[in-house]
Amino acid sequence: MLKKAKILIVDDDPLNRLVLEKTLANDHEIFLVESGEKALTFVKSTTVDLIILDIVMPGINGYEVLIQLKENSTTHAIPVIFISANTSDDDEAKGFELGAMDYIAKPFSPAIVRARVRNQLLIKQKNDLLEMLASIDGLTEIPNRRYLDESLSREWRRSRRAGTPLSVLLIDIDHFKRYNDCYGHRAGDDCLKRVAHALVAACERGGTDFVARYGGEEFAAVLPDINQQEALEFANKLRDAVNALAIPHKASLNAAHITISIGVATTEFGQVYAEHILLEEADLGLYQAKGSGRDKIITRVIAAS
Ligand SMILES: Nc1nc2c(ncn2[C@@H]2O[C@H](COP(=O)(O)OP(=O)(O)OP(=O)(O)O)[C@@H](O)[C@H]2O)c(=O)[nH]1
């Protein structure tokens, strides 16, 4: 049995909103808004399981709403069903190309709307589960590189489009080979887990900030809307969190405990022409942090390109 799903209905026609609400309110929790702008504002503060979206509306239309939902890491996975009186093949094809899950023609049959909504909610439940399993690193149980790469790609597109800052951090445990050699691989695994959990716990903004395991003893973070100074503060917090663990590392050449080095790359106005540039710059910063003694943070701002 499905738990009551939250469904957002976006339609400028009050009668359509009313009929859709009556059609679905028995089985689901319904929210109604009359414009694309209000829909985008609503999903910033409320998590919904499905959106039923009209296409032709005053202000931004349904296609544009969908584009913006797809570009945002917290809303990109919400299934969208278009509901429209525009029923040409081209309209429908455009909706699917933009990522809509279904397309219902107006006037609609309540029974068909209910059935299609139920189908999409079942698909979403299964997708969420698969997505979660595919995005988690097996050892540390934090997001993996796949999750990070997808998130970076999305956030880079958003930053470029909106001209907003975006920062990327690459974080590497110092002298970890020596740790493995000294304490054994199993202790190395435990150390990786402890560091991973400390990094995750240091992320405060919940949904938007996260730390992923990037590979081996390397971690990474994607920070939307974060400029160089804020990224540096964030990196300092991560470094402090790992230092606070005080994991003994007698084979380290720079401290008596486990430390991390961090490279930070920032685009202040979304002017980076490819997402891999951010990772390359962060990697360069990390290389410099290692070269300047480890347990260090080096930030790099990417100029217009
Ligand atoms: N225990 C354990 N070790 C790992 C894992 N993944 C990578 N490593 C080890 O991490 C070590 C990384 O070594 P290097 O790349 O030489 O870097 P480092 O010793 O940390 O030196 P610097 O980065 O220069 O401070 C290697 O010995 C890898 O075997 C893992 O999942 N578990």
UniProtKB/TrEMBL annotation:
One of its GO terms (biological process) is cell adhesion involved in single-species biofilm formation. Its EC number is 2.7.7.65. The modification 4-aspartylphosphate is found at D54. It comes from the Bacteria. InterPro entries: CheY-like_superfamily (IPR011006), Diguanylate_Cyclase (IPR050469), GGDEF_dom (IPR000160), Nucleotide_cyclase (IPR029787), Rev_trsase/Diguanyl_cyclase (IPR043128), Sig_transdc_resp-reg_receiver (IPR001789). Keywords: Phosphoprotein. GO terms for molecular function: diguanylate cyclase activity. Residues 6-121 form the Response regulatory domain. Its cofactor is Mg(2+). GO terms for cellular component: plasma membrane. It catalyses: 2 GTP = 3',3'-c-di-GMP + 2 diphosphate. Residues 164-302 form the GGDEF domain. NCBIfam families: GGDEF. This is diguanylate cyclase. It comes from Pseudoalteromonas arctica.
